[in-house]
Amino acid sequence: MPLTSEQKKDISKEYAVSANDTGSAQVQVAMLTKRISELTEHLKENRKDFACQRGLQILVGRRRRYLNYFKKTSTPEAYKELITKLGIRK
Questions:
Q1: Are 70 and 32 in contact (CB under 8 A)?
Q2: In 3D, which of 88, 90, 89, 81 has the Cα closest to residue 14?
Q3: Which percentage of the chain shows pLDDT scores above 90?
Q4: Is there a contact between 64 and 57 (Cβ–Cβ < 8 Å)?
Q5: In 3-state terms, what secondary structure has residue 48?
Q6: DSSP secondary structure letters along 1-24
Q7: According to the model, what pLDDT value does residue 39 have?
Q8: How far, in Å, CA of 78 to CA of 70, rounded?
Q9: Residue 1 pLDDT more than 80?
């Protein structure tokens, strides 16, 4: 269930640092969070979809690595703001 280009544009507008920013850690984390929430909803209905479950675990790990990188390279306030804005618990 990939994100559509419209969804990607909306997410990048909201979390981008500059006008043409699509690859910063904030945007990547936001896109992964959107995909994770969609897969979580899918798994609530289809509990035995183990391939989807594995994909979800991979995405969560990837998001964790992006968050660790963002935490190291940015200010603590920016990190906390991103987490609260996305609704991720840490």
A1: no
A2: 81
A3: 81
A4: no
A5: coil
A6: -PPPHHHHHHHHHHH-SSTT--SS
A7: 96
A8: 9
A9: no
Q: In 3-state terms, the chain is what percent helix, strand and coil (to 5)?
A: 75, 0, 25
Domains of the chain, start order: 5-86 (1.10.287.10)
Tell me the two tokens of residue 62.
């990837």
Tokens of 33: 């969070």
Task: Give Cα separations from 89 to 14, 60, 84, 85 (angstroms).
Answer: 20, 13, 8, 11
Residue tagged 């269930």 (tokens) = 1
Structure tokens at 77: 């306030």
Using the 8-state DSSP alphabet, how is residue 74 labeled?
S
Q: What number of CA atoms fall less than 13 Å from residue 5's CA on the CB side?
A: 0
Q: Which residue has 């603590």 as its token pair?
A: 76
